[in-house]
Specification:
It is built from six helices and ten strands, in the order βαβαββαβαβββαβαβ. By secondary structure, the chain is α/β, with parallel strands linked by helices. Strands 1-10-9-6-2-3-5 form a seven-stranded parallel sheet, with helices on one face. The protein has a three-stranded antiparallel sheet with strand order 4-8-7. It binds 6-phosphogluconic acid. The site of 6-phosphogluconic acid has 15 residues, from loops.
Length: 245
């Protein structure tokens, strides 16, 4: 398994531009070789600029009619809720695409964490054609200042996730929405390419800790360091988040 790579961009707009290029290249390869492209979307605020690019300047770079999109995690709220990741993705990307041009599988967080996770676990198996050899072409992830990624938060019992692709999660008390659904380490590991998008000086210290922990096998208290891929992991970060040389 190749080591993770780190690419430093000037600013969040440059992160979005580079990530869009990476996704377009992965999509071309996926469609050429397998006639379809699967993309796992990250929540939070950092990816919004990327999604807006994919809906505008880079819109023609993706084969939307051969693209299937899933979510890496979701807050247990409805799709119209201000804290919904689906709402953020719909506003920045999906609302700009022709109807039914891409297959999008929303996590129905409004069902509650357990029911929504069970439903999404079935959906994820279905997207993978129930084939253990299937891989997601690109998984987009962010990283919180506490070292979480998707909705895999410090203190999580990862052993309970081993049999699942989607699972319930609980965010820390300070989070706007505590009940979550998240893809598991197992689901994310079944990928060809993981792209972490991280911006801001507030992430710098944690990013350095996570990169170090990832290189020495991963630290469960820093969930982002536990992420593995069957393919490659690239950290695309801005100068604010980049480790000081
Ligand atoms: C979420 C995301 C979460 C996010 C990080 C970074 O639902 O909030 O999945 O894992 O990627 O918290 O968020 P920012 O991009 O807003 O810093």
């Amino acid at each position: 398994m190749p080591a993770a790579t780190l690419t430093v961009c000037d600013d969040p707009a440059a992160i979005a531009a580079l990530a869009a290029r990476r996704i377009a290249a992965a999509a071309r390869e996926a469609v050429d070789q397998r006639f379809r492209f699967t993309l796992i979307l990250a929540g939070g605020s950092t990816p919004r600029a990327l999604y807006t690019r994919l809906a505008t300047v880079d819109r023609d770079s993706l084969p939307w009619d051969a693209t299937t999109m899933l979510f890496g995690d979701e807050r247990c709220v409805g799709p119209e809720h201000a804290d919904s990741n689906y709402r953020m993705v719909h506003e920045s990307l999906l609302s700009s695409l022709p109807p039914r041009s891409a297959r999008v599988y929303r996590i129905r967080g409004e069902l509650g964490a357990s029911a929504a996770a069970s439903e999404y676990d079935v959906i994820t198996h279905k997207v993978r054609n129930n084939d253990p050899e299937e891989r997601f072409d690109v998984v987009l992830l962010g990283m919180g200042a506490d070292g979480h990624t998707a909705s895999l938060f410090p203190g999580r019992d990862f052993s309970a996730d081993a049999k699942f692709f989607a699972a319930p999660a609980i965010a820390p008390p300070a989070s706007p929405v505590r009940d979550r659904v998240t893809l598991t380490l197992r689901a994310i590991a079944d990928s060809r390419r993981v792209l972490f998008l991280v911006a801001g000086q507030d992430k710098r210290e944690m990013l350095a800790r996570v990169l170090a922990a990832a290189q020495s096998g991963g630290d469960p208290s820093l969930p982002a360091s536990m992420i593995r891929s069957s393919g490659t992991i690239e950290w695309i970060v801005d100068r604010g988040a980049a480790p000081v040389p």
